[in-house]
Design brief:
Elements: E1 2-6, H1 10-22, E2 26-30, H2 33-41, E3 47-51, H3 59-68, E4 75-79, H4 84-93, E5 97-100, H5 105-126, E6 128-129, E7 132-135, E8 140-142, E9 147-149, H6 152-163, E10 169-170, H7 171-179, H8 187-203, E11 208-213, E12 217-222
Parallel strand pairs: 1-2, 1-3, 3-4, 4-5
Antiparallel strand pairs: 6-7, 7-8, 8-9, 10-12, 11-12
Helix pairs in contact: 2-3, 6-7, 6-8
Bound molecules: calcium ion (CA).
Calcium ion binds near residues 8, 51, 53 and 54.
Amino acid sequence: MRILIVEDEHEIAEGICTILEQAGYETGLAFDGQTGLEEILSGIYDLVLLDVMLPEMSGFDVLREARGAGIGIPVILLTALSQTGDKITGLDCGADDYLTKPFDTGELLARIRARLRRTEENLQKDLSFADIHLEQATFRLCGRERSIKLPRKEYQLLEYLIINHGQILPRETIITKIWGYDEETEYNQLDVYISFVRKKLKFVESRAVIVTTKGIGYSLEEGE
Ligand code: CA
């Protein structure tokens, strides 16, 4: 799970980063609203911790724009303001939760876990597309008649395609989402994995097809 922290006070931002990394999350940092919004729109994060008082753009505006662009990931607002008015504004903008600074580390982690758990529950519901279904517990791709166990990366790749079916996913976004920033991934490795997943879809005799949009990326579509 990858969490973005948008916070202009470097010390606080880096402190949160350390806490999250120790808890096993991958992290990203943005120190102003505009950069934060760009990072959110990249689509590679699973959750955002968003400060309200930010240079360039306020957290409220970042959130409004992100929601307007169809970004549905959980957003927890970090605010130094505890007035009811700000909380209502935050929720109206599409926040899922908020924490008033200074907050307790344990509470921060608990809120994050709660939000991510809901995401996972939603994912489980969404793991069907056309005539296929992904079984999270067993990593099996199930068609109407046949099923096959997928290796981890193929599973993650197909899961990501199913969740975002019908959308063209840029190559860079898929690579970052599946392989992360740290691992060195040759670009053609993605093509190899796409071909593996295509073979598995064929094996279970699915109508679902991975469509290539040249120079851009891939999308999962329902074929004939
Ligand atoms: Ca601030």
